[in-house]
Amino acid sequence: xxxxLTERRLLVTGMFAGDxxxxxxxxxxxxxxPLWDPDAGxxxxxxxxxxxxxxxxxxxTCTSHEFGTEIGAIALHIDGGLVAATTDGFSHLAGDxxxxxxxxxxxxxxxRMNDGACDRAGRFLAGSMSYDxxxxxxxxxxxxLDGRVSSLIDGVTIPNGLDWSPDGSLLYFTDSxxxxxxxxxxxxxxxxxxxxxxxxxxxxxxxxxxxxxVDSAGNVWVALWDGWEIRCYSPDAHLLDTLPVxxxxxxxxxxxxxxxxxxxITTSRYGLSRAAIAAQPAAGRLxxxxxxxxxxxxxxxxxxxxxxxxxxx
Length: 313
Hints:
The protein is mainly β and about 325 residues long. The protein has a single domain (about 1-310), classed as TolB, C-terminal domain (Neuraminidase), CATH 2.120.10. Helix content is about 5%, strand content about 50%. The protein is built from 2 helices and 25 strands. It has helices at about 275-280, 310; strands at about 1-5, 20-25, 30-35, 40-45, 50-55, 60-65, 70-75, 80-85, 90-95, 95-100, 110-120, 125-130, 140-145, 150-155, 160-165, 170-175, 180-185, 195-200, 210-215, 220-225, 230-235, 240-245, 250-255, 260-265, 285-290. The strands form 6 sheets. A 5-stranded antiparallel sheet has the order 1-2-25-24-23, with no helix packed on it. The chain has a 4-stranded antiparallel sheet with strand order 3-4-5-6, with no helix packed on it. Strand 19 and strand 20 (about 220-225) form a beta hairpin.
């Protein structure tokens, strides 16, 4: 079941069709990391602060698993289950079981893992950040195919949305505190990055960039934390359309559905007062918007989770 927001009708400019829906799924304290599983026809997402992973089936049934640790991001794993960025590193989730495979932040209790995604070769990238918002102490880490973990980008404050152009040659990466999305040349064979340049600058804008996704045409969709909207930008950074949402804190976006035309939006009530939550009852809910564009299925992680390199951490 879903609630249709007919009272907040969208101005359709070619990117959207129909009304935004609030899905009758479990509300999250801090929803994040929407992930479409095309084989199962299931939308997965997390409640970062509460340690839940939620699963929404095609028939509208929602199930949840609680793992007792913060979960910043999830991705499909080629051998089944999900690979996850958990409180202090990378873990494998299978059903309701969690196995920590490498604790890269075990000796840094002031840091935690945040958003992440897989490249087309199957490497899982996820960022780390400070609990207290200390500037430039976070990094973008990468779980390599052989189980090694490398640091790809250092000096990050709030690492957030990341995704690749359809051909894998560009990496888009967000530092929410800096209010920028940076583009990098990306060698999907080696995983090397080069030539960083500013793609989007939200200085002075209402809200800051959070999670993002790239559709099949290369357009970049960005959730604006504290901005009450989703924005869609062309590959040359022109604003194509804006989707107002009935929540202050949308966190991330992902395409799903059988034809990849459903845009799923996770949201948060983290840090909101009781009055603010009462004024926006959809806060923390999963939203869905039908679009006129086609998304992309997510790439699966292919890292060897049994590698002795992982145990060595």
